[in-house]
Amino acid sequence: MGYISIFFHKGTDTMNLFGVLKDISTASKKSNRSWFTILLEIFMLRISSGKVGVHEYFAFHLYEKKSLTQKKEFVGYRREGELDRLFNRLSWHALVNDKLTFHALMNYAGFPVTKNYAFYCAGKRHFFGSTHLEDNSDLQVYLENSMKTPTFVKPLCGSCGKGIYRIDSINTESQSVVLAGKGEVSFKNFISMLDDTLIKLGNRGKYGYLFQECLKPHHLIEEKCGSGISGVRLVILFDGETYKVVNSTWKVIFGDNIVDNFVAGLTGNAIADICIETGMVKRVVQGDGLEEVELNELNGFKLPYWKEAKALCLNAAQMFPELKYQHWDIALTDQGPVALECNTSGGLAIVQIPRKEGVDNLVLRNAQSNL
Fold first, then answer.
1. What domains sit in the chain, N to C, each tagged with a CATH number?
2. What's the whole-model pTM score?
3. pLDDT tens digit string along 36-69?
4. Which of 257, 263, 326, 327 could form an S-S bond across to 236 if both were Cys, CB 3.0 to 4.6 Å?
């Protein structure tokens, strides 16, 4: 059972044995490598420093013919947690993980961020320019009288795009909101939906919900991807001397999605490898692992305001000196780049999948040695 537990654990390794065997068979045929070789390699990479899980092995295409040294550069979610603990002081996490605190600090420093309209949270928190909705009755009154549309609604301490809604309009006569992708929902049911999400978030749910403006993407991006915000992920690392952009990914919205999260390819969205120097799209993929599809029509597209986006992250990163490995989400609008959020651990899979390269490279190892 000890060996089995190495392969199958929580998170990205929640796979049934039949599914794993099927994937090994498919990978064997695609790569012309034996079952035994692939199975042995999965085991070796799982116990290596990168801690790559079973699902990640296929998502990263590690069954393909590459050297073992190259494959050991890839980082699984378990190793990502270790990197967070190594580079980022835990006592500083709340400054970016709590979106109200993050927005307040960014606003005070003069960096462009989304405008917050209101926050729904028990207690006595107060933030300049945002309406505090302390309970259900406050929220009911706000929906009836003060609601601006469209409005983006998301947990103050959520992740992975869960529990997020876009309110497109309000119908005061029927006492309902019109949610993107869900249609008309009564005020009562909508409030219950928010409360249920906060309960599921457990301890993080106590921070509540944020109501904020809906940004519009830059017109060049809108022509390619529609009206949703396809955000840019910029990974910033302090190497002992200065902050640097070490990885970049473009999260491309597809279909009726209102968020750009990739979630192991299950959402239908795509992710793109971006040249750090120029902001040019190099490789775009959709789907997951063995079902991955390349989307060549976006290759060569140059993201607008790229230099400004990098400058925004590099300057803002210095506000958090005890967070030395930061993952920024940036919206590119006609007015320039806007900071959406910063994370201490941002899902390095979305960087490694389109690049087909691991992130545990010389730059990262040198930074570790300078801590």
1. 2-74 (no CATH), 85-95+217-369 (3.30.470.20), 115-213 (no CATH)
2. 0.90
3. 999 999 999 999 999 999 999 999 999 998 899 9
4. 326
